[in-house]
């Protein structure tokens, strides 16, 4: 499937964001970019901590940043992992958080580079959504 220019641009925004990841412990840079219905983009990076378990993934940084700005109509999220040589999907915790704020039909893209982007949806990466009956987007 051909990925649209809009989504390729979103992936590029995620890749650009990855350059500022704070990841001195893993040295694994991750960038995320959220596309809003109005066309604007909000990015996030992974932010680690010397108490390793406190590290925050790029996807959650982007979502928490957006939600704290009062934004909520998300069309897509792109995730770039330039230090890998294959597309790295969101971790389980991020899938849960994505499912809280994004429609199940929303687009999810992830890749380590433009040539290997996986194009999918929230419902595909998070079927049997945990506690969906309690959520707002069920
Ligand atoms: N990481 C993300 O930011 N997103 C993912 O989807 C996978 C993992 C981060 C967490 C940690 O800072 C580093 O990548 C290595 O796991």
Automatic annotation (TrEMBL):
Record has Transmembrane as a keyword: no
Top-level taxon of origin: Bacteria
Domain CMP/dCMP-type deaminase span(s) in chain numbering: 5-133
Residues at the catalytic site: 59 (proton donor)
Keyword Kinase (UniProt): no
Chain segments annotated as transmembrane: none
GO molecular function, one term: zinc ion binding
Keywords recorded for this protein, A-Z: Hydrolase, Metal-binding, Zinc
Record EC number: 3.5.4.5
Needed co-factor(s): Zn(2+)
InterPro entries named among the record's database cross-references: APOBEC/CMP_deaminase_Zn-bd, CMP_dCMP_dom, Cyt/Deoxycyt_deaminase, Cyt_deam_tetra, Cytidine_deaminase-like
Binding sites annotated in the UniProt record for substrate: 46-52
Record field: catalytic activity: 2'-deoxycytidine + H2O + H(+) = 2'-deoxyuridine + NH4(+); cytidine + H2O + H(+) = uridine + NH4(+)
Gene Ontology terms: cellular component: cytosol
Binding site for Zn(2+): 57, 91, 94
Example GO BP: pyrimidine-containing compound metabolic process
Job description of the protein: This enzyme scavenges exogenous and endogenous cytidine and 2'-deoxycytidine for UMP synthesis.
Alphabetical list of PANTHER family matching this protein: CYTIDINE DEAMINASE (PTHR11644)
Family designation: Belongs to the cytidine and deoxycytidylate deaminase family.
Protein's name according to its UniProt entry: Cytidine deaminase
Organism listed in the record: Treponema phagedenis
